Amino acid sequence: MLSQNSIATILVTGANGQLANELKTLSHNYPSFQFLFTTKEVLPIENGEVLKSFFEQNKIDYCINCAAYTAVDKAEAEQEKAFLINATAVGALAHICKEHHAKLIHISTDYVYDGSSTIPLTEQSRLAPINIYGLSKLKGEELAIRENAFTLIIRTSWVYSSFGNNFVKTMLRLFKEKDEINVINDQLGSPTYAADLAGVIMKFIAKKEEGNDFSGIVNYSNSGITTWYEFAEEIKLLVNSNCKINPIPTSSYKTPAKRPSYSVLDTSKIKELLHLEIPDWRESLKKCIGILSENSN
């Protein structure tokens, strides 16, 4: 059990994931907070008894829920598991945060939209997920708000990091292994560097500490619009790879789960709330590649 002191405690679930690892890196800049990083082994959010016991034993002031079922294609066959972790457990977490007066910050996704838009998606844009993963995440949002009106939900897109598995690291591996690869060129979106998102989350917490609490739904991604193909080309340029990248349509790359063709998020609301200047995706990608290069030396 943690000692009951005046220092605010931030619980971060899903500690092995990209965003949680970026928060761990950032936590060293916030000595005025105590951070608790929990893996699914320590705190499986879908286990109500373990969740209840954990909150009773630890005084939690903030809970950043990075825990999620993120296997988009596997979700089509594992619907029950996806809904348990991404929806039912999120509702339970929201409820327990309300009971213990803890602020819940929950991470959601662009997959709650259907991808048919041609203009950046606002928080009020039509919600119509086209796969099980998106449906489970949308249900999680609904349950979180229903159980705890003070929940803050951050929808994000195309997340990558120097941690974990993601598009950037996959491209770097393929550049080394192959002379030629195919990458989809008809899905539009905005990559999000998890380190930038972690910084934004901490800004929300700092605002609440100052007495400005924010609830509801906000969108966050890096600025600028690209395709997976252009994203790959930019990675290639930054690492001076000679691998040939061929642009292909989504129809040439069959997956169990459908992907939205348009995932560009309108971030006007979060920029206004936090007085943010959001970095361009290329700028943030360069930082991430720099860290990966350092780590490989």
Could you please describe the fold and organization of this structure?
By secondary structure, this protein is of the alpha/beta class. Helices cover 40% and strands 17% of the residues. It contains 9 helices and 12 strands. It has helices spanning 18-27, 48-57, 79-99, 132-147, 167-177, 194-209, 228-239, 268-274, 281-296; strands at residues 8-13, 33-38, 62-65, 103-109, 152-156, 159-160, 180-184, 188-189, 192-193, 216-220, 226-227, 244-248. The strands form 4 sheets. Strands 2-1-3-4-5-10 form a 6-stranded parallel β-sheet, with helices on both faces. A two-stranded parallel ribbon has the order 6-9. Helix 1 links the parallel strand 1 (8-13) and strand 2 (33-38). The mean pLDDT is 96.
Distance between the termini: 40 Å
Specify the number of helices.
9
| Rg, alpha carbons | 19 Å
**Overall 3D form:** globular
Helix content: 40-55%
Give the spatial strand order of the biggest sheet: 2-1-3-4-5-10
Classification by helices and strands: alpha/beta
Low-confidence stretches: none
Topology order in helix (H) and strand (E) letters: EHEHEHEHEEHEEEHEEHEHH
Reading off the top of the CATH hierarchy, the class of the domain at 8-165 and 192-223 and 264-278 is best stated as Alpha Beta
CATH superfamily of the domain at 8-165 and 192-223 and 264-278: NAD(P)-binding Rossmann-like Domain
Question: Within the CATH hierarchy, at the fold level, what is the topology of the domain at 8-165 and 192-223 and 264-278?
Answer: Rossmann fold
How many runs of DSSP E, i.e. beta strands? 12
Largest beta-sheet details: 6 strands, parallel
